[in-house]
Recover the amino acids of this structure.
């Protein structure tokens, strides 16, 4: 299977961590969707990641790819709890983590525009969304248990903040989340997929 990705993308990182934890080998294709119009033939949304299956079917976006990989007959542990409260807790954590990124990524793009064109109001909204969700994660840090789609997604999200927003100092005032990440980030799958520019 071929994964179109970027080494900086936290969404693609989540998929790569899932693949490593499951023991699934992926053929990685580095892609800059903004500079590659032909990529639209693979993913019409012009976003990464996209996974091309052996029969040519293309899957996107990251929650769909993650669930597909986990549903295959792989040698690792299952990362999507099958049912009940554990499943919805994990899916909620993934939604919170991806939501942080859905604010962080456009915030970074906005901050790279010429200062005169930047919207302070929009930047403030992105920041508030990120900060409130990090606070909510701190308040439910006891739910960050085990290795599953939720905890992996949260680790990739806060890892992206270390990469692109070090000045945010997200650990400040969030000691439980910080302590959890300190340990979780040592997993080989996380260490092997640390973001690079
Ligand atoms: C980044 O460079 O920060 C980035 C790249 C791809 C997807 C998301 C973020």
């Amino acid at each position: 299977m071929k994964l179109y990705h970027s080494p900086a993308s936290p969404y693609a990182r989540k998929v790569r961590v899932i693949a490593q934890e499951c023991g699934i080998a992926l053929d990685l294709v580095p892609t800059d969707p903004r500079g590659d119009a032909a990529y639209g033939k693979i993913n019409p949304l012009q976003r990464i990641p996209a996974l091309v299956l052996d029969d040519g079917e293309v899957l996107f976006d990251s929650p769909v790819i993650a669930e597909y990989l986990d549903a295959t007959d792989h040698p690792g542990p299952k990362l999507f709890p099958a049912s009940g409260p554990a499943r919805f807790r994990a899916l909620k954590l993934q939604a919170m983590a991806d939501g942080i990124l859905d604010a962080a990524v456009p915030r970074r793009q906005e901050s790279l525009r010429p200062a005169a064109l930047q919207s302070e109001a929009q930047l403030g909204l992105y920041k508030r969304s990120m900060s409130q969700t990090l606070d909510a994660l701190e308040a439910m840090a006891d739910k960050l248990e085990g290795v599953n789609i939720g905890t992996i997604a949260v680790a990739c999200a806060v890892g992206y903040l270390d990469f692109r927003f070090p000045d945010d100092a997200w650990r400040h005032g969030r000691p439980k989340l910080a302590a959890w990440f300190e340990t979780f980030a040592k997993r080989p799958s996380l260490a092997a997929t640390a973001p690079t520019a």
Remarks:
- The helical segments are 10-22, 62-71, 84-111, 120-139, 149-164, 175-184, 188-191.
- The CA atoms of residues 11 and 62 lie 6 Å apart.
